[in-house]
## 1
Amino acid sequence: MATIREALALALDHHLAGRVVEADTLYGRILEVDPENADALHLHGVLCAQTGRLTDAAALLRLAVRHGPAAPDHHVNLANALRALGRTAEAIDAYQGALALAPQRVDAGFGLAACLDAAGRREESAVAYRALLAQAPTHAEGWNNLGLVLRALGRASEAVEPLTEAVRLTPLDARTQTNLAMTLDRAGDTERAMAGFVRALALDPAFASVLTGLARCRLRVGETAAAERLKGWSLRLRPDAPDLHAALARLRADRPTLADAHVRRLLALTPADAEAWNARGLHARRVGRARDARDAFHRAVILHPDLGGGRINLALAQRDLGQPERAIVEARVATALAPDSAAVLNNLALVCESLDHPSDAAGLMARALRLTPMDADGWAYRGAMLRRAGRISSGLDACNRALALDPALVGGLVNRAVIRQDLGDLDTAIADNRRAVAAAPDRADLHSNLLLSLQYSPRVTAAALLAEHRLWDDRHGRPRAPRAGWRHPNTPTPERRLRVGYVSADFGYHPIGYFLAPLLPAHDRKAVEIFCYNAKPREDGMTRRLIAGADHWRSIHGLDDAAAAALIAADGIDILVDLAGHTGNNRLPLFARKPAPIQATWAGYVGTTGLSAMDALIACPRHMPYGTDVDAVERVIRLPDDYVCVLPREDAPAVGPLPSEGSGLVTFGCFNNRAKLSEPTLALWVRLLNRLPTARLLLKTHQFDDAGVRTKLLAAIVGLGGDPTRVELSGTARHADLPGWYNRIDVALDPFPYSGGLTTLEALWMGVPVVTLGGGDRFCARHSVAHLTAAGLPELIAANADAYLDIAAGLAQDRAALAALRTGLRNRMAASALCDGPRFARHLESAYRDLWRAWVESASS
């Protein structure tokens, strides 16, 4: 009869020869006879593991360890079985047991390191891999895995070296090449990453991950078309890969039909996946469907409440819809879920901006940039928020940092241009705006920024302004025009009630609000029906007043131009009025679509829009003197008085006495923004101060909160031969407090070539006469000329610079006449056409009717 040893040898022969059934049977019989035989337990356990019976294998191998604890193989194979079962913690103990017996066991060292990684103990895993590689320096898989562990720890730059060694040991392995390329990409070495992906692709052209990684790199260097092609090839290999459909939806965002198909497929593949709904929301937000975006992000958050990306995207969608209070709640939850995420901090900053908390936004961006100091966009945005918080010079530093990282960064150029305007560096601001337009020629808003900045420059002629505005239309207006031969369906009855629509993002405490407040309730409801299309995200007290004055109030905030145009057309608007021109948040691309048969620009801009789709420019004989029609693309309509009427500040204090009565010193003042204080303006004011040695000058605007702006302005005064000690610079005042500041000045001085608008009207209401320079070559140069004429004060309009000085000095030197003028000026203005809403409404409605009759006549012919 065979001994146990002989039977075990026979069983092992069967085992090694692949006769599994015979080996399995014989191991079992041996264990029936000798159940504590460690060798039999070990070999039977190995066989069970090899044949997929992992639970049985683990039980047998554990007994083998118990009865043969000094055999390293027993520990290693037990650990392997436990690892295969996913019982990682037990496997770690078993591998450590093997290494205690045989520290040189490479398989045990590798298994331990892998299990520590799987258990999330990556720092320990990296130590274990390094220990393994010290013994087995040619272990390619060890080098590969060490690199992956380091990358997972966020140490991508450190991970490059071990992965490079893995590639050196296995140069024909596409997977290792791909891991190195992905790590180089993560480390920011895009060029080497692309080269690595190309080598991996040569080894395995059907490796979808390689295509995806290479596409990501191509996208990073701006090769969008190449990235899209690579993603498309990858999709052929993995047609049901959700990540590829999500990526292609982003890449094809400019082709909404294709992008929407990818998003729909993504949701069909993963209908309960929060990330898929998040992708749907991102697509909807990109194409301007803010409500759809909000709903999709909300669904994502319901499916995955801890999805930080979904939370912050929901916050942004709520911000887009003018719901910042809800947005801030979601954004703070997202930040709590991912406190060290630069992207989440960045988006929380956007929400704070929408709540008008720029200081908070700038602080959040500082935190984000500590995490991602090479983020050029982040520095540009921080610059914008610092500027809004009154820290203009710091904002300039941040924008310069952004442009040092990316000299062609549009956001950096745009934000720096605004800051340079604040600093009085108009020429460099215009240059930055031109660079931004060149970098993104398809962006109409950037081109509008340039046009507005040109209005401030005394070096730009009226002809040049017209040419620049026509160029805007060539690029952004005409391409959006309706097809040739299309006709509006409006009923061409000349005397019927007209539907008039006003479009603005400034229905609030803004000059537009003060111009509309006396007009809307004064409209003749038998003649016109009033629609207001509001693009303003948040309401204020003035917004609510305007809502009460309109027949219909429509929100177009969050609607793209096509959707807004469809809404306007569905309302059957006869005359659509633009109240923004090329100012911020304008909707001129909407007007380019011609949703109404007659379109006019009025009150919000300073002259021609350049838009061929705009039929009329509503002005007055002072803003557009007869003979200047050649400066406008539109037909010029001249109202008889002024081009606006105004609601005076109801919270304004009583007109105070002349400040000079108490001090004996005349104080001139100007409360216009810094960008209007051109060098010729400052030079003329220096001449005035030199002429009146005891006079002082008070300049007040929000830009003077910043020490750098103040220093630069005073240096300009010195450079022009003035005494800076006689110039007081004051910064921001609360909206309600600003009118009271006029009680500190005797005479207001108007800047040029960009004259004061609402600022002039507020000065007059506070009893302060405004001296202006007539004869300007552009619409914005004539604001005060028009307002003073309408108020019956033409004697304050100077024909030239010398006359300007004479008028200002004359007012200062005749205190009795100045005091009398101050005392009666508010009543004089209140009784004038400037404050007569019904009179203005009749004139404006008459202009509308003339435009309508002309259209009816043309439509009939």
Note: The two ends are 121 Å apart (CA to CA).
## 2
Amino acid sequence: MDILALGALGAYSTYKSYKSKNGGKFYSAPETKKHYDNISVEFETYSKLAEALIEEMDAIATTDSYQGQDADGVKQLMSTTEPETLRMILDLHEAIEQYFADVIDAFARDVDSSPEAFLSFDMLDLIKQDFWDMLNDYNTEAKIAKEKIEEYSNKYSVKYNHTITIPDFSPGKDAFIALCGEEDGDGADDYLSKCQKMLVDFDEAMATHLADLNLMDLVDAINQKLVTSVTERYPDSGLEQYVGNIDKFEKEYNYAKQFFTGDDAVDCQIINILLTYGHDLSSFDDVSWEEMSTDRRKAYTRITEVDIEYMDGHYSNEECIEQEARVKTVLWVVMNDGDTDEDLIFNSDRISFMKDNMTSEVSKRYITTLGTAKLSEHPEFMIEFSGSYALDITVEQAGVNFTFTSDENNYYEEIYVSPSYNRAKNYISYCEDKNPGCFNHQIGLLMHEDPNMDEEAAKTKLATMYVGALNSTDDEFMSNLFMADSTYENVFNVDPEKLSVNVQSIVGNQMVMLASDDYAYGNYKELTNFINAGINAEVEIDGVYYPATDYYLDFLAVSSGIAADTLETEAWSVNLNDENIDSFGRKVEIAQHVELLMLVCASYLNGDSQFESIDLSECAFRQGDDITIIYSKESGKDETKLNMNEAFGASATNVKTAKRLDELKEEKNKAESELYLTTAYEFASIFIPDIPEKYEKAKKVYDGITTLAGLATGLRAIDDEYIKKMEEGEDDYVTFYSYMYSKKGGVGYNVMTFEAIKLIRQWEEQGIGALYSDENGVVCVEDVEKIQNAYEDIVGSDEFEGCKMSDIKKVCNTMIYGTNSGKEIETYDSINDIPIDLLVKFFLALDSKVDDVQDVETILDDILDPASN
């Protein structure tokens, strides 16, 4: 606190120029009193708290329950320095309040007694100027009048023998001068100058009075006591060099306090580090981590902890300049040396020390991510740098990115820290503050997809998706998408090879939402824009833009496949009696057709042509729809129309071979395994709750059913020739619960429809009667009874030769009565648990022992092969 600070509390003006026209003295009685009253209230509150604190400190200083060397030091502090300092501050407050009272009394006595008084030196100057202007006008007019009268007097007095009296204009002039003085006069005696002088005299008198009170001695005494207390508490911190410069001392001490731990030894090191190497540690030249004392390592850890927490709460690098500089310096210190045997960028022991000495879960999360960064996963990163290098930190995305770059060695490696939910949610708010409504389109789409979702819930879902960003490219793409309009322009202008499976999951879900019947309203314009934006995306590499059509065609194909499989997975556990089950089934159908659409696009070839765009005007994502593919070639643009049902058939001439589909399927399987069967569980649950358990169950079914070792084989392979081919490993046959868009020897697109899934679930639970039900669920009792009545014949069939009777009954019970029949019978947990050889034998036995019922394979063909209907 200094004289200017005290002056700001007092009545006299901080304007010091007596004659300044732009900064003269002023005084407002009501504002001054209001200001003083507010400060007095705060002083009173401070006084009450101080007295209570003094009592508490006295209790500590006199207690016998706290003993020891440390206790003596604390007691000494509590009994002397702390209460004495508080008393001195209270005395200072009392002196200031007395000064306030003196100011108000003096103004009322010497200047103006009105409680509403307001005087301004500048305003009085302006008033004087106005009166000077009027005085000049008066003098000019008086002179003109006087000269005219004298002219008339000289001209007509003799003629008319009458003296014309010339008026005396001086009284008017004197009245003006008495009010405002003359413009070139000394301004000592006029009324307005006297008013100004009263204000100045009052101001100077109060300044003299303030000096006489000697408040600065009190302030100096308090400052000195505090300085002594701080330097004794933190010896050798470096603050002692500023004992004679209280402003610098206070500035440095207060800056360091933001990092204090409460441990004096560590806090002393914090002060020393910041004083020695600068607030941004730009002059860093400390010893190695191992050579540092434990307290000094803790000091660096604490500085990093506070800075990371600060960075996590901000989204502008300009606001984090010092924080980033300090964090980068410390990270270089804890990095592994060139001769390390660890496959880690940062030394595991140093990172562990930092985590163990942090209390902030936010900062621990960052340090953990950095500490697990492997050298083998960052092949361009080098421990020993042969040239210039830099570590940059970017906080301007949802997540925070740590980037290592070297111009000389031309490498770039990033360690990306995914945002926490809170940071992601705050990032959305930050973006909306800068650009109101920037998320409106995506929020509207999410709310349309789920009518029960409000705007806040939609933002929550966006934040949860942001949490799934695994790198800065994911982060950038998500922002591009979430803040896009219906054109989706520039959404895909990122490197598709860097996008994670989490983004593919989002993109697949986006396409399904855009293809929904009540959103697209039959024109699919926005979905077309979305797909075409990907097809026509360009990626910048070293300042040059390259088309990314082939990459994004594959990307979109895999993304759509993930979405379709995700919904198929959900179909295995969805409540089949839900009132919205038909809508869900339609959603599954749309998702599967979107996947088929993208597989057609990704597999399309036409000589030297370049895929350019698609037209969905004749598509409704149902069986038999057509799409138009537009491509460019040297001769110009051209187009071709494809029927999605036939796109993979023998009649399709413009598609790649089965190898292409196998490659895409392999990519999809790899992506799904990463998405659903790894640590990405939490992200996958955005689209399906409890996805891990559901996916594992569905995957178990698929592994059995969609391969030749599955149930499909049992239905299709009921002749020795087929079984022989199966045993020889031939894999070009369609499998159960799937259909082929062409059964004429072309490449097949296998997918499990919702009707197929529903059927297998009903069959599994209710028994074979589910196959013999019409669309209204009415069972053909006659056929079912024939099968059930043949139970003993089926069990005794020669087809089961060599099988244990318990296994035979178990498979027959499962296939005929289901797993939830209510009967006291033993069954498998699911159809897929039945050994394939036993299942094949069951169907052979069923076929040989039951006549005059509709063939099971025919029933399944009708339901599982929509293309044949």
Note: The beta strands are 26-28, 118-120, 390-394, 400-406, 411-417, 538-541, 544-547, 610-615, 626-633, 636-643.
## 3
Amino acid sequence: MKEKKAGKDSGRLLHADRRLEDGKSAGDKSVGRRHANGRHAVRVSKFLQVAVLAAGVLGMSAASQSMTEISEKEQPLWQVWSAEECDAGLTVETVGENLILQKKAKLTADSEEGRDFRAMYAGDGNHTDETLRWSSENDWENNDHWLMADFGESVSIGAVRIYWERTNAKGYALEYSQDKENWQQASVFDEAPEQKEQQIVLNEPVEARYFRLHVTDVLKEESDLSLYYQNVSVQELEVYGQLEDCFVVETPVIEAGSRRTLELPTVPEPYSISFDGADYDVLVNMDGKITDTIADTQVELGFILEKDGEMQELPGIQTKIPASERVEVDREREEVPEALSAVTLPKGFTAMEWMPASATGVIEPAGQEIPSDEISEAAHVVAPATLSSSDWTTRFIRVVYRDEELERTAQLFATELSGQLLQDVSVEKLADTEKPTEGDIVLDFRKAVGDGKEWTQTLGDEGYELNLEAESPGVISISARTKRGVRWGCVALGQLWEKSEGQLPTGVLRDYPAWSVRGFGIDVGRRPVSLELLYRIAEELSKHQMNTLQIHLNDNQIISQSDYDGTKEGARQLYAGFRLESDVRNKAGQSITSQDLYYSKEEFAQFIEDAAVMGVEVVPEIDTPAHSLALTKVFPKLGLSGDPESVDQLDLSNPAAQKLAETIWSEYLIESDVFSGTGTVHIGMDEYFGNQKVFVDYMKALSDYVAEAAPEKTIRMWGSLSKTGQDYSGLSRKIQLQVWDTDWTDPQEMYDAGFSIINSLSSSLYLIPGGGYDHLDLDFLEKKWQPNVFETQERTWELPRWSSRTLGACYMLWNDYASQDGNEITEDGLFERFAEPLDILARKLWK
């Protein structure tokens, strides 16, 4: 288990004391400033690395001088101050450099709580690390505190950003002076900040050498503990000159038609703008080519603003992509013809694109009983629907395919359909020249037509098209570019049948997912988990169009939470599992393979292949260098020495430890084809407490080894880089990071550094049966959770939906405990916990 943290509401809205002015036309640098209440923050996408303060500075005594010079930090020459939605698109405001990070600037405070909360930390350029902040004395008799910047010379100040560590300042002001004796107020506040991040634009720029945040009163409420903690705490203070530019980035207008290309918005010189992605890249690819669509769709577009070599992301802009060919309407009535408007998709079933035909079709169940032992567990049996008359009625009794790659997909679907229709559905391969007949469901790979090719005829890797008797009477066709796409089309047809209660509308629909990773992961290391349960989980994931099943193959009891004698020898006796058959043994012949239950290489390889037929990619995870008691039991000299609680961690100072990990991966990637059926592997890398520099070096070495051994595979690992405090610039940005804890990995930092991100945040996506987290919070998941949002008690991170590096989410089940209230946790109990949130998460990860 990774430590789970409770999540609370925590937004990042900004507010300001602003005056309203009339706006001018788009592109004019003097466009009027808009009121900033409720404005969302804009994150800088520049790959900035802020230097951590030297160990000698951190060790300074509390008696050190309170005035400390701030070393000049690398920072962008300009940045987006705000980007606010307006009727025309986005109103963008920019500022120059943060004056506090310039060489001559110094910070002073009236008091400091201690050496760990010095004034200098509020000007170190790091507003995310809560350990690096200024905090005043906790003086109950005196609430008058200030944090002052001395710029060394007179400067012009027009905008201020404050990152409050705690929003308890009840009365405060921004003040300026030329001589540090005579102070004037630039802005005054008589209420506590609404959010921790506060942006303030002064009504008029001021000239001053000294500028300070002056707090005169704080909240004193017992409910939020401010009665007891009356000190003022600021994460970061940023001071800028006046707003430099203000202009509108207009929403792109896309017209109907074929072979369309996105036209970039215009921005004033010296800025330039480029397209950087869409939440549905199926609709708009990175070259700006727009797919032909059969219905109006909505898309969020991402853009990069550039000036003087500095690039910054803008928030996504929503726009409509109209159908390529417009449906003729009655111009006087301005509505779709009645025959078409009457044909809708059933309640509870949605698709990105739907083009109805002129009638309603009915798939009529024959009423023939199928023996229960002939119906797959994956088939969902529904009662025959009450049918109404329609233009055509037929029975679909055959699933046909042309390409041999689709044979198993067709067989799986026919088995499922038999259970739904309560009639025998056969499977046949069509000859190249053979045409489908009435009653056929045709599975086929989509082929580009016309001269548009991939420009206009793409469905992406997982999209599909359902043609419901729109072209051939009595024939349904499912087409896609890939086997997985065809599988999702089969699943969709089953869902459509169920939602429509047996009455299928005729027409064409297309659908495709918004998120590329839609997954679940299960820990099979800490307790035996049967392969039968894994198959059952894969089948259920498939029925919900979830494409990832992560198998955490090795782990052990959490030593710190276990009952043992406190010795290293005792810790090594705790339960540990390595669930996949391995030939790795020590000199005494002892194997790392679990003896109570393990998966043979052959059956695990078959499971990967079978899951792929269901559309589910199995992602095998071998977790090192921590959680490795199954290895250090067999190779005790390769474990960390010292604290008994570290015996499950490899001693990375020993080259043999890395060699052991490489040997294990070689067994499955090079010496056998166990992992040949998957495109993704997971190399662990979480919660290591040994030397952190060596840890990062190990990450690079092992990921490089796996990449060389299997260059066609994607590599995933747990996010641990932020907490190491080390230089990780040498790590490949092709590695996908699974973020489970924001202390270990700041998702924004990792995104800004160029990594692709998967949301597995423990506070919202961890199941720990018997450990206090038996069930996910369904209400939170339904009403608030989003795959690109990482919400904790301290703050909320939101990554762009439109970015190809915001991948999706994977919820996890950790088997830390074998029982609950004295009762064994059964595999049925594990399945119930897995299945409970599946429908909500699947819906949110598809759309």
Note: The mean pLDDT is 85.
## 4
Amino acid sequence: MAAKAVKKETAKDAPTQAAPKQDKPKKAAVATAPERRAHHATLSETKCPDCAVGLLKQFASESLRNQKELDPGNQRFHLQDDEELELARTNPLTLQLVGLRRERSLSNRFDDLLVVLYDPALLKEGEKTVLEAEGLRAENLKDAQAYVDAVLAETEWPVPKHWPHPGVDVSCPQCKHWRVAVLPITTEPGYDKDKPALKDDKGNTLPDFDNSTLLPNDVGAIAPGIYTGYYRVGLHKGASNPPTSYAALQFAAPSIPARRRFPVSDFLNAAQAAHDKGTDEGIRAELIRKEPEVQTEARERIEEELGKKLPKKTGKQKAALALAVAKKLKAWTVEHYEAPVAEQRKKQAWETLDAWVNGSEALKVKRKIDASERLIRLEDASGAETQNFEAEDNQVSRLEVVEDDEAPMKVGLQLVFQAPPPPPAMPPASTLVPTPPVLTNAPGLPAEPAPPPPPRTLRLTEREVLVVFGTAGATNIHYSVDGENGSWRRGREVNDFSEGCQVFRSPDDFRDFMRMAMLSKRAHCPSRKASCCEKLTVQDVETAIGPKMTEFIGKCPSVFARPASDAIIVAFTPPPPPPPPPLTETPPPEPGAAASPAAPDPKAVVPQPAPDPLFVVAVEKLLDESRSYKDFDKEVRATFLKVFLNKKYETPENFALLKSYTRKKVLAALLPEEDVQKAVEGPPPVPKEARAFEKTLEKTFKMAIETGLENLRTKLTETKDAWAKAQHTLQINGRHARYLKDGLEPCDFGACGFRFDYMLAETTRANMEAFVSKLGGRDWNALFPEDAPLPPPPSPKPKKQAPSKSAGKKDKPPPPSAGAPK
């Protein structure tokens, strides 16, 4: 980033004669700038409140100094108490990327800013835009100029305003000359749109913008810091969803410091689901199975008790007694096992909650909050802090599962705080004032020390959120939607567009940003060579994402359900019958010539005679009546799902074809069987032989159905392989066309070593507004439509007054009098 941490200087500390001595480089070994240095400390004064860049440095410095206190384990990313941020000017077109997050904002909105600063390159005067940047290698300048020309020649996507220098000019005697662009983004994860909204005591749904219990429990938001060399030009979704991947700034580090938020409701809801799993009857049956002797003793006792009261001489009396015993035994069982059933449900909830807290190999659940993550605060649903675990004597020791009689599932969560430090050591005995001895219950024995007080605890509720410090990965910089329409809609939510990435609201803004990044990379990559600017080929794309594309298609995602269904229909539709052979005229034999029979062709395939239609109908009837055929539809569907793993790939049309194909294969396997031929003729007359024959026949049907299903599986596999191969080729070609439009090069798929730096700072909305206002250019309400005042409601239209009866009759002739002619 070529940003520096410079030490603050006061008048008392200022040197009188000697020039200040510059400290050695620190904080980062890799820098985007060609001079290979970044984030080093000097003694020069850097505060400048007179321009937008000065305000940005001031707000970012405050944030990065405060972050040092919140995250002492990552000091290398923050500023010390005596340091200020300095954005060092390097070569032209070197991008400084600064994210501004609204302090303590948890709204599900695009309410943050990405600030892009750079020194614009000189342009030669003339009809054509020509870069003139001193200090650039000839290879870099040539490729950068070619990219400028390519963007200017673009017809489908609009050229950025003021290209190749988008943004607003900022000139200041102290901060120098910059070009600055501001772009609305979000720097935090959106809400999980599939989660049920939290409701208040009256059943009203809480706002989706300020309910942090709707946050996903496994994603993190990047913590403020200076991150050198953490991003590069690459792909977003290249591994997770290759068919929709596109050029973005890809995360290029193992991990990054992050804050995670864990809604307590997720823990409790998982435990409640485990508590409610299964029926009481099923749980009782399992408990009875483990102790059958209890049930036997209860039955004997009830039989003895009722046997003394009820008669049992006749068959009806015995049946009535047995019915009464069963009824009373059932009532006793329900009452006896009421407490054990409740205890079993409590155990299920406890085990699940404990697995979320501590992990469980038996349940195959990993602990949600890793042991390396540190609890820093507790928030309510709106994001307001209710507990600061960084405060003195308020540090948390652990999160644990406890019994909770007030909860429906009888278990809950609580925090256990660290014990207070021991009291200071007693002074030496020589300095103590002698005190009279205190008598004890046992003369001659010293008094026992008082036990330490139990640790302080805090019970957690479903409306609270645990905030921890940890790490995150794969936090790319990308856009939210592909089309500009609707992206600026007022009240637009982030939702699952962000899982902790830095996400643009507008795809046009993102495209302009990526063009700046592509130009900067071409201008400054120190290892750039001729092969870097070669045109991207289909083989380059295949090498980059081909294996992931094959894996993705093989999982049968829902997005491909329609083309896959079409391929299945084509594969299983029976071919049309062949046309009849054309009639050929044979010349009449010559007079007197003997007709000689034609010799048969030894290579000709002799067609098998068609089976008797009546016999086929009889076999079909036997098949329909067999026990093995009752689950035929279910078995066909199960075979289909073993190959095509998504239920959405099945349609009524293709399932009818699959069933018809399999049935034909089953009949083909049944027709030559002797057992089937005998069954058509009729079963044996002897009952014993008939039963044995029926078992044999049923076995034959079962084997034929298995053969038909195996044939179905084989053809489905062939169909899927052919469809997946065709779909793979189609998707790779589509991504190749998209990557060319994005401006990607072969080296962008992992070989390029050029990196971008990123700085993230938190500040108040008032500070962000002051920065935007000082910068000029884009208006605050245009950047954030949600902050603009609501338009006044439309004035009500004047109601049309109904004409009065007198007015309606004003111009009408009077009615005729009685007796007048009509």
Note: Residues 98 and 759 are 5 Å apart (CA to CA).
